[in-house]
Specification:
The protein is α+β, with helices and mostly antiparallel strands. The chain is built from 7 helices and 10 strands. It has 2 domains: about 150 residues, Heat Shock Protein 90, CATH 3.30.565; about 100 residues, Actin, Chain A, domain 4. The strands form 2 sheets. The chain has a 7-stranded mixed sheet, covered by helices on one side. Strands 8-9-10 form a 3-stranded antiparallel sheet.
Length: about 290
């Protein structure tokens, strides 16, 4: 009986020792709570200008339009970076201040051929305007529970110009690490240029870009590298990085913006992923 009781006590102690919670167990990472706010507004202005070559006055219009999703809950540094991408604003201290500046700033600059006589707010589009300029900023946000992605589209046209200009920007925020994700967090960007060119040449998914690149650089056969763009997205399956080039960045205006697809597994065969990238994409996504 004593021997049986001894064995029970010994077994219990052994089980407890095997399942003892270590004293240095790491604290669970608290995920940042992000909420989205939709903000939309539009302002109109009329600008009376004096052309240098005649005595009559000319009235142009300005239409500033804002339609964005803003994520609340970012770190202060991330907020400043997002405001820079949205509005090219590096001095506003709050999102509300940046919105007001964008909507109210008269960006129709005076030049040597046109002197501004008067700027006044308007109730809307007017027949008195001989032409009008516009600035539109739009953004949409999405999250997969860990990464928050904001896609920004902006378009600008100056009255009587041959055409407008548009550009897209991307903002990626890791809610667990509480930081903005840059391309340099994933790979060594100093080595990425030749890899991008190889992806354009070798991967059929980039066939359209290949055609544009051959047309632009065909007379320069020694070109073996493409510039590393600022903008990129990570797909929801964590298997692909897409690089975005703005208009004029690697092609003419008529060719438009360009997107180069880099499958993560393919990329890992040509360039070492950073420890952060390996953690983000998971062990099956790279060699």
């Amino acid at each position: 009986m004593k021997r049986a009781l001894f064995l029970v006590v010994l077994t219990t102690l052994a089980f407890t020792a095997c399942h003892r919670v270590p004293d240095n167990k790491p604290e669970p990472v608290e995920q940042e709570q992000i909420t989205l706010r939709h903000v939309a507004d539009e302002r109109f202005y009329s600008v009376t200008m004096q052309p240098s070559w005649e005595n009559t006055l000319v009235v142009f219009g300005i239409d500033n339009k804002l339609d964005v999703e803003w994520p609340d809950g970012l770190t202060p540094d991330a907020e400043r970076e997002l405001m820079k991408k949205l509005f090219d604003d590096e001095t506003s201290t709050t999102f509300e201040e940046a919105c007001e500046r964008m909507l109210s700033t008269n960006w129709f600059e005076e030049d040597e051929d046109m002197a501004i006589k008067e700027v006044r707010q308007s109730n809307g589009l007017s027949d008195e305007w001989s032409s009008y300029s516009y600035l539109t900023v739009e953004s949409t946000a999405r999250t997969d529970g860990e990464l928050l992605s904001v896609t920004i589209n902006s378009e600008m046209y100056r009255a009587q110009a041959a055409h407008g200009i548009y550009y897209g920007r991307e903002f990626i925020y890791d809610t667990r690490e509480r930081k903005v994700v840059h391309l340099s967090d994933l790979v060594d960007t100093a080595l990425l240029g030749p890899v991008i060119m190889r992806a354009v040449e070798d991967l059929e998914v980039n066939a359209d870009v290949r055609e544009v690149v051959h047309e632009e650089y065909g007379e320069y056969p020694s070109v073996t590298s493409l510039p590393v763009p600022d903008e990129f997205v990570i797909d929801s399956t964590r298997s692909t990085i897409v690089l975005y080039y703005q208009v004029y960045e690697i092609a003419c205006y008529a060719s438009g913006s360009q997107a180069v697809v880099l499958p993560v597994f393919w990329l890992s065969k040509h360039l070492e992923l950073t420890p952060y990238a390996k953690k983000l994409f998971g062990p099956t996504a790279y060699l």
